[in-house]
Write a structure and sequence with these properties.
CATH topology: Rossmann fold
Radius of gyration: 18 Å
Order of helices and strands: EHEHEHEHEHEHHEHH
Helix content: 40-55%
CATH class: Alpha Beta
Number of helices: 9
Bound molecules: NADP nicotinamide-adenine-dinucleotide phosphate
CATH architecture: 3-Layer(aba) Sandwich
Strand order of the largest sheet: 3-2-1-4-5-6-7
Number of domains: 1
Number of strands: 7
Distance between the termini: 45 Å
Largest sheet: 7 strands, parallel
Length: 256
């Protein structure tokens, strides 16, 4: 447990650190004196966020990589660093097609990012932090991970996987001085959501989300941003036919 993020170590690894919530994490960590390795696919946004981090007095390293293709480059870029914090943020690859009508390879892409790459990074970095006896892991989750949904069923299932895995890690790493948190987001105004053309009325601001996440990092295993815990409780409840169908009806009304 640490009062500021700099207590975890000099460097953070942020997947999806180029924009939205990931970039907000990078800026706020930089303001606390923590440097970042930023991972994303698009070079321009990466370079821009890296410049902002440097402007705040911290260092930045960028890795232009598609996490669905493997995590080797990302791990290699952190090997020589005093890495104290992993922020697993990239993950809004929801594809958005009904399961059987969608392309299986596209569904696999959601799993490649949110399950395979996430698991690999948690295993590698979690092991490093455990051996070091100090560190933090923050996994960015979604309310979608509490309930089956139309069109994003694989994404919702992958986010549920992340949450349960994170809870287990919290138990396992707590005795070794590593804070672990699953940070559950509701609708948040990120570039990815804006590009997707979603209606974003009332969406959270990425800076507020990152601030709340860093404040709660030592209080795992799960924190719901913006007071969504009550809804998460409802979505986890029974009977499942009422909960799943009721939530689907609510979403259809919201987006019709
Ligand atoms: N925004 C919301 O309303 C919302 C709601 C609930 C949960 N969340 C969660 O919040 C997190 C961030 O979401 P977001 O809305 O900012 O969208 P996102 O699509 O996860 O994008 C965030 C960052 O991830 C990078 N990224 C995406 N796919 C990648 C890949 N395959 N390999 C490497 N980097 C990749 C993006 O840069 P590039 O595109 O350049 O790669 C960007 O820097 C996700 O885990 C999502 O599940 C978001």
């Amino acid at each position: 447990m640490t009062a500021t993020a700099s207590g975890y170590g000099a460097w953070a690894l942020i997947t999806g650190g180029s924009e939205g919530v990931g970039a907000a994490f990078a800026r706020q960590l930089a303001a606390q004196g923590v440097s970042s390795v930023l991972v994303a696919r698009k070079a321009e946004a990466l370079a821009q966020t890296a410049a902002e981090v440097r402007g705040l007095g911290a260092q930045a390293r960028t890795v232009q990589a598609d996490l669905t293709q493997g995590i080797e480059d990302v791990l290699a870029a952190t090997q020589d660093l005093d890495l104290g914090l992993l922020v697993l943020n990239a993950g809004a690859n929801s594809y958005g097609h009904d399961f059987v009508d969608g392309d299986l390879d596209q569904h696999r892409g959601v799993v490649d990012l949110n399950v395979t790459a996430a698991m690999g990074l948690l295993h590698a970095v979690g092991g490093r932090l455990k051996a070091r006896g100090r560190g933090g892991i923050l996994v960015v989750g979604s309310m979608a991970g509490y309930v089956g949904q139309e069109r994003i069923s694989v994404y919702a299932a992958a986010k549920a996987f992340q949450r349960i895995l994170t809870e287990g890690l919290w138990l396992e790493l707590r005795p070794h001085g590593v804070d672990v948190l699953h940070l559950v987001l509701g609708l948040t105004r990120t570039p990815a959501m804006e590009r997707a053309g979603l209606r974003l009325d009332g969406a959270a601001d990425p800076e507020d989300v990152a601030r709340e996440g860093l404040e709660q990092l030592a209080h795992g295993p799960v924190h719901h941003v913006g007071g969504h815990q009550r809804s998460a409780g409802h979505l986890s409840g029974f009977p499942r036919d009422e909960v799943v169908a009721g939530h689907a009806d609510m979403l259809r009304r919201l987006y019709s």
